Amino acid sequence: MNTAGGKTVRTIAIASGKGGVGKTNITASLAIALQKLNKKVMIFDADLGMSNIDVILNLATKYNIEHLFKGEKKLKDLIVEGPHGVKVLPASSGIQELTALDEFQRLRLIEEFETYDENLDYLLIDTSSGITSNVAFFCMAAQEILVVTSAEPTALTDAYALMKVLFTKYQEKNFKVLVNNVKDNKEAVEVYNRLSTVTERFLNISIDYIGYVPHDDSVTKSVRQQRAFMDRYPNSEASRKLSEITERINDDDSHEVKGSLQFFLGGLLNSKC
């Protein structure tokens, strides 16, 4: 995806393998934190059959991705503005057939992104939970994959399973890991080490620990208020830690630039995701 002027947008797929680890909350607040660094950000709600971002941010959405696939609206018609100027491309809700895109829908999406000419620095792709064909598709489309996990054994198991599928089926070897909802850095590092140990033993991949977001009551409160915690409680411990992670991500120039988004997606048109 190239914006006006030919600049390549940095695309990050945010995945978890398991639902309930706070991935969408992290995505929303990460977008706001990037905007605070004077970056122009769009969130693509890639949980196409079960919209979440617009609910979390309490956004009024007249149109959604279903209207694009039906040919009724263009990409620019769907986008709504969220807090701090974050742009949001909303998913649909309760549309089961969108949980696995067919070749025509992928092509339609590619064409729309290719013609989108608004200036962006980051595209954050909030994938659905689980290990579906859509999750694999969007993870492989992105330049970077950020895996959100927690200390729960099931969250670790599913995070490992996600990385295993992306490695064994698509040869993806590079992942960033964010540990959410833990007591402190010690617990977060223990979670990362458990994940790192098993990936080193069974998979030839690199996982990069980029930090943690602590358990914080303000996160729960912000969810109930349909606000991102970075927006509603910017001085909370969760926001402070996520700001540190955001700066780390923004300062990282080691990510592999695979090209612009439509080229990634185009290369996957015939993949067996």
Give the proportion of residues in helices: 40-55%
Proportion in β-strands: 15-25%
Order of helices and strands: EHEHHHEEHEHEHEHEHHHH
CATH architecture: 3-Layer(aba) Sandwich
Give a written overview of the molecule.
This protein is of the alpha/beta class. It has a single domain, classed as Rossmann fold (3-Layer(aba) Sandwich), CATH 3.40.50. The protein is 44% helix and 17% strand. An 8-stranded mixed sheet has the order 3-4-2-5-1-6-7-8, sandwiched between helices. Helix 7 links the parallel strand 6 and strand 7. Helix 5 packs antiparallel against helix 12 and helix 6 packs across helix 12. The longest helix is centred in the middle third of the chain and has 18 residues. It is globular and about 50 Å long. The N terminus and C terminus are likely disordered.
List keywords for this structure.
273 residues; alpha/beta; Rossmann fold; 8-stranded mixed sheet; 12 helices; 8 strands; 44% helix; 17% strand; disordered N terminus; disordered C terminus
Helix and strand layout, with pairings?
Layout: E1 10-15, H1 23-36, E2 41-46, H2 53-56, H3 65-69, H4 75-78, E3 80-81, E4 87-89, H5 103-115, E5 122-127, H6 133-141, E6 144-149, H7 153-170, E7 174-182, H8 185-202, E8 206-214, H9 217-224, H10 229-232, H11 237-251, H12 261-267
Parallel strand pairs: 1-5, 1-6, 2-4, 2-5, 6-7, 7-8
Antiparallel strand pairs: 3-4
Helix pairs in contact: 1-11, 5-12, 6-12, 7-8
